[in-house]
Write a structure and sequence with these properties.
Layout lengths: L5 H14 L2 E2 L9 H11 L9 H5 L7 E2 L21 H11 L4 E11 L3 E2 L4 E16 L2 E14 L2 E13 L25 H8 L4 E5 L5 E2 L14 E5 L3 E10 L11 E7 L5 E6 L12 E8 L5 E7 L3
Antiparallel strand pairs: 1-5, 2-4, 3-7, 5-6, 6-7, 8-9, 8-10, 11-12, 11-14, 12-13, 14-15
Helix pairs in contact: 1-4
Bound molecules: zinc ion.
């Protein structure tokens, strides 16, 4: 692969910024109710103005409208769709890949909605590259910030816009594992909101945060009660039993301190909250939704204990 010099990437980026707005492939389908229904179901947005014709007729909109946050959905190319006539950004991203800046992480996404969309409108995207800075030293490695703006048009009228920025970085070289030393398990992030939980784990208690005003239990822990907005909090100790609500089998990437494959589950506690944890002491193929599990406090090393879940109820 030919390495592209920094000079060349900068020149290419400047040229693409000068190109201005480039029209993309129009939406495959007009704004439509089935896609709105799928999206609102997936997002858990129960607002009837998006799906209930009668309700929508009586609303300020007078008819069904699409959730504004779906703007990007309408013109996503989908798998296998021909993507020729790409955006001005594609060449720059490809050039960075070719120079070894193969890592990518999205850093900014800001959307602006000019109005609601109605059923039957067919959107057309247009992209312009607006920023290119670097190389910068970041925690992930050396990289470039690439910024672009997408505008969506309906019959020539701009209806929504998005600013998107990514960091394209050169991944750091991994140091080879030395001899017999075990890879170090990942540490949980402990802060003022979560320290009570980890203190409990060290004592063999599974603690759930509880609002000191209204009594609502919440997990993961946070600074504010979502029900009554109180910042006063305390905790209760869970009975330690639960039921697998959902799970995945993790094969890749490797995780320090754990052997793959392993199971990560969302465990429904009888106290009413759900908690994420690994399922241990059984084969991955034995895990099923609804399986009763019991908490185990697993010593990972001298300092770290993690709550995990093993088959078996009371
Ligand atoms: Zn509360």
């Amino acid at each position: 692969m030919t390495a592209v010099t920094q000079e060349t990437v900068h020149q290419l980026a400047e040229r693409q910024i000068a190109v201005g707005e480039v029209r993309g492939t129009p939406a495959a389908d007009p704004v439509n109710l089935p896609m709105i229904r799928h999206w609102t179901t997936a997002m858990g947005d129960a607002n009837p103005v998006y799906t209930d014709e009668e309700y929508a007729r009586g609303s300020v909109h007078g008819e069904i409208v699409a959730p504004p946050a779906m703007a990007q959905v309408w013109t996503m190319p989908g798998r296998g769709r021909d993507e020729k006539g790409g955006t001005p950004v594609d060449d720059v991203l490809a050039a960075l890949d070719g120079s070894g800046y193969t890592g990518v992480v999205a850093t900014n996404c800001e959307q602006t909605y000019h109005r609601y969309l109605r059923l039957g409108e067919r959107l057309e995207p247009a992209t312009r590259m607006t920023g290119f800075t670097g190389p910068k030293q970041t925690a992930l490695g050396e990289g470039y910030f690439v910024t672009w703006n997408v505008s969506w048009y309906s019959s020539g009228e701009p209806v929504a816009e998005m600013l998107f920025r990514v960091l394209k970085f050169r991944p750091r070289e991994r140091k080879p594992q030395s001899g017999s030393s075990q890879p170090y398990p990942l540490r949980p992030a402990v802060n003022r909101d979560t320290e009570f939980f980890w203190e409990g784990v060290r004592k063999g208690e599974l603690r759930i945060q509880r609002c000191a005003d209204c009594g609502e239990l919440r997990h993961p822990p946070g600074p504010l009660c979502p029900k009554c907005r109180s910042v006063a909090r305390t905790h209760v100790v869970a009975c330690g039993e639960g039921e697998v609500f959902s799970f995945i089998v993790h094969h890749n990437p490797p995780v320090p301190g754990l052997e793959t494959p392993f199971v990560v589950a969302v465990v429904q506690l009888p106290e009413g909250v759900r908690i994420v944890g690994n399922v241990v002491n059984c084969l991955t193929e034995e895990v099923s939704i609804g399986m009763p599990v019991r908490v185990r406090f697993v010593q990972m090393d001298d300092e770290l204990t993690l709550p995990m879940w093993a088959p078996g109820g009371s």
